[in-house]
Amino acid sequence: MSTPERLIEATRELLWDRGYVGTSPKAIQRQSGAGQGSMYHHFTGKPDLALAAIRRTADELRASAEASFSSEGTAYERIRGYLLRQRDVLRGCPVGRLTMDPDVIAGDALRAPVTETIDWLRGELARIVQEGLDAGEFSAHLVPEEIAATVVATVQGGYVLARASGSPAAFDAGVRGLLALLAPRTA
Amino acid sequence: MSTPERLIEATRELLWDRGYVGTSPKAIQRQSGAGQGSMYHHFTGKPDLALAAIRRTADELRASAEASFSSEGTAYERIRGYLLRQRDVLRGCPVGRLTMDPDVIAGDALRAPVTETIDWLRGELARIVQEGLDAGEFSAHLVPEEIAATVVATVQGGYVLARASGSPAAFDAGVRGLLALLAPRTA
DNA sequence: GTCTATATTGTGATAGAC
DNA sequence: GTCTATCACAATATAGAC
After folding, report:
1. Looking at the domain assignment, is residue A110 inside a domain?
2. For all residues of chain A together, what is the average pLDDT?
3. Where's DNA bound on this chain (chains A, B) (predicted)?
4. How many structural domains comprise chain B?
5. CA of B103 to C1' of D8 (A)
6. B22 touches strand D (CB under 7 A)
């Protein structure tokens, strides 16, 4: 792997585990095996490197979600697929956690990929819920954008519950509760 | 206000906005108006002061939630009251945000109040959902602990959506979606 | 109780040799 | 492209005067 590549990957790991304020250039250098000089040769500084790392993480998350969304099945099945897809629950969401980082949220550059990713997620889910409504799968009084927000929030909040309790079980409980509420009436 | 009091309050504000790793003793001293010497006279260091601050924040959050839970009304109405209670949405949850702080989660001392608060919330909500089930208010197939987790997750995740989009509207959308899913069948 | 001085290590970066 | 100085400032304290 090239040096810029190793720097970006190391930064992604550190941002995921410690956030932006908790990630120092020195830690990035240690984790990537690159020296001081290399890092500042390839990137202008910590914000520049963090931006590259965040963008890549956002792209990966999007590609991964897209796979769930475009699978076969009813709207409910696709939402269930998204909710139950494998996750590193105790590590949290590598994009969502950045919303709690003051230095990420404060500036436009680092915040943009975060905003776009979460907004895109809500939009895709809203589209799926609308398809479910059109198919008569869900109660007609449900509002697609609201249900989409509830689904994304349950996932993001599920990470909080899991980390608070120290167990992925809390995440799973929240997801199962949501699926029970969302389930098409089979009676 | 006494000096220890001002130190604790300043730390609470900073922890809320910047997290534990983002909060320095110097910033606490500036915000509280206390000097270096005072801070280290009243507290052994940053972790000690943070513990006092986190405990107080957790106690306040619990008291505030208790007010919603113990109000009059059906189970659905009490859950709705909790979900719609006034919040500083864009600032996030002062307790939940600490779950993303590596130095808080890593140690038992600082993590304990966070764990206890979130676990307590889930327990109280599960109790209310059970009451709703007993009263025939909810579908019998719902599992109280799961719905409770979904409710808390929707709130915690709602903060993430709001901060990602820069608007409290995203939080409100998630809550309305959940309430629509949870609403007793009126037909 | 509060203040100032001092200390060690880390942060985030620049400069210039190789 | 990478390395080793070097730098100014912040983080997180300790020591001891007042």
Report:
1. yes
2. 97
3. 24-43
4. 1
5. 27
6. no
Asked if residue B25 is part of any domain, the answer here is yes
Distance CA A34, CA A159 (A): 32
Protein-to-nucleotide distance from the CA of B153 to the C1' of D12, whole angstroms:
36
Give CA separation, B137 vs A130, A139, B143, B184, B186, in Å: 27, 18, 13, 6, 10
Q: Is residue B187 part of a domain?
A: no
Sequence letter at residue B171? F
Q: What is the CATH number of the domain that holds A92?
A: 1.10.357.10
Residue A187 lies in a domain: no
Band (A184; pLDDT cuts 50, 70, 90): confident
Give the pLDDT band (50/70/90) at residue B186.
low
Helix/strand/coil (H/E/C) assignment for every residue in chain A: CCHHHHHHHHHHHHHHHHCCCCCCHHHHHHHHCCCHHHHHHHCCCHHHHHHHHHHHHHHHHHHHHHHHHCCCCCHHHHHHHHHHCCCCHHHCCCCHHHHHCHHHHHCHHHHHHHHHHHHHHHHHHHHHHHHHHHCCCCCCCCCHHHHHHHHHHHHHHHHHHHHHHCCCHHHHHHHHHHHHHHCCCCC
Place of tokens 């949870």: B182
